[in-house]
Task: inverse folding
């Protein structure tokens, strides 16, 4: 998610819809990009290029490690925001499915 890579052998292709700009509201930037910008804007990763920010990103997106209480809260908040993006995508796909079914009838 952090690097916005276009594919992975670990996750199914459906996960990578988050990296397609066409699935976002504006169609200009991907849901993954928008989520990352929210994480940076709202402080979870406010300074991603600083040594502290890089260490936090390595902890969150790397192999893991020991978390402080504050780092655990940051992780939980980030996962909640990601869950919201995935649920929004799911709603959009459900709407598309309903529209396709109505056209078929």
Result:
């Amino acid at each position: 998610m952090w690097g916005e890579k276009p594919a992975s052998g670990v996750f199914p292709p459906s996960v990578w819809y988050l990296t397609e700009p066409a699935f976002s509201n504006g169609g200009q930037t991907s849901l993954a990009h928008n989520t990352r910008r929210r994480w940076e804007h709202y402080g979870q990763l406010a300074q991603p290029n600083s040594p502290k920010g890089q260490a936090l990103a390595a902890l969150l997106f790397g192999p893991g490690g020991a978390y402080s209480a504050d780092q655990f809260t940051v992780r939980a908040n980030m996962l909640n925001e990601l869950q919201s993006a995935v649920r929004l995508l799911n709603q959009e796909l459900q709407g598309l499915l309903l529209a396709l079914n109505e056209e078929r009838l």
User: Anything to note?
Assistant: DSSP finds three helices and no strands in the chain.
